[in-house]
Design a protein that fits this description.
CATH topology of the largest domain: Alpha-D-Glucose-1,6-Bisphosphate, Chain A, domain 4
Helix content: 40-55%
Number of domains: 2
Strand order of the largest sheet: 1-7-6-5-4-3-2
Largest sheet: 7 strands, antiparallel
Radius of gyration: 25 Å
CATH class of the largest domain: Alpha Beta
Structural class: alpha+beta
Order of helices and strands: HHHHEHHEEEEEEHHH
Oligomer: single chain
Number of helices: 9
Shape: elongated
CATH architecture of the largest domain: 2-Layer Sandwich
CATH superfamily of the largest domain: START domain
Length: about 280
């Protein structure tokens, strides 16, 4: 009898413990992901977005501008049914959003720009040598789709090439890092779309378009990052990087004859640079 009483007490305590256990914390990404899927008319995997998670995120209007990146990435075949895709589309569904857009035209052929975008460590080496600004870049996966890079003390981070590429002349990068913009030093995630195309009759110029989407974590940061001054500084940095590539390519061409005598470049690097110079 005593044993039965002890068992009964143990069972009662176990049941109470189960009932008292805290409920699992809700996933903060789910409403962003599901709100974007529903609001932009994109299909979500079966069972991922029940009605309680498919409501619009407060303060978000799912118009063509807000849905542009998600729809284009879906058209590119970027999946939304794995962990990487879930995080990407949830990022795009964040309440706060800031868009930076820069376009221009520079005296550099599409062939040369595509070549450098296909070998980011070489491009960083070229920029450091000819622009007197320390750039770094290294691939961190065998497929050469994820890279780590920096520009002086202003920018550092890691990003993945998630769609497109130099051959397609449209590249999508998603990553995170730290940037110093004027008096502000920030860390966060961004999505960048870089597109370029030949311009002019001789094909020696290129027209480019850069769009960067960032998602500030709160209203105060959102206000700062949408300030005209903040945006003008960021847009200037983006333009400067494209112009750095252009100027470095021109300086390389001027130094082409003495390239093989420059011991600061490895034989493999010199061969790559000569291949670059042979492009129109």
């Amino acid at each position: 009898m005593r044993r039965f009483a002890l068992l009964t007490a143990a069972a009662t305590l176990a049941a109470a413990a189960v009932q008292a256990a805290p409920a699992a914390k809700p996933d903060p990404l789910r409403p962003r992901y599901c709100g974007l899927m529903k609001g932009c008319g994109l299909p979500a995997p079966d069972g991922w977005c029940p009605p309680e998670h498919s409501k619009s995120v407060p303060g978000v209007k799912y118009d063509d501008e807000r849905c542009a990146e998600a729809r284009e990435l879906t058209a590119y075949g970027v999946r939304n049914d794995d962990l990487a895709g879930y995080r990407l589309y949830a990022f795009l569904g964040h309440r706060y959003r800031v868009l930076y857009a820069v376009e221009g035209e520079v005296p550099l052929s599409a062939a040369r720009l595509g070549y450098l975008m296909g070998d980011l460590p070489l491009a960083a080496r070229l920029l450091t040598r000819f622009q007197s600004t320390p750039y770094t870049a290294e691939y961190v996966d065998p497929q050469r789709r994820r890279f780590r890079g920096s520009k002086g003390s202003k920018l550092s981070g890691e990003a993945d090439l998630i769609a497109g590429g130099p051959d397609a002349r449209t590249s999508w990068y998603f990553g995170e890092g730290t940037s110093k913009v004027g008096p502000w030093k920030l860390r966060g995630r961004s999505l960048m779309r870089f597109e370029f195309a030949p311009a002019g009759a001789d094909g020696r110029r290129v027209r480019y378009n850069v769009r960067i989407v960032s998602t500030p974590t709160n209203a105060a940061l959102n206000l700062i990052m949408n300030l005209g001054l903040f945006k003008s500084i960021v847009n200037g940095e983006i333009r400067e990087m494209v112009e750095d590539v252009t100027e470095a390519s021109g300086k390389l061409e001027a130094a082409g004859a003495s390239l093989h005598a420059d011991a600061t470049w490895s034989p493999e690097e010199r061969d790559k640079l000569q291949a670059l110079l042979r492009l129109p």
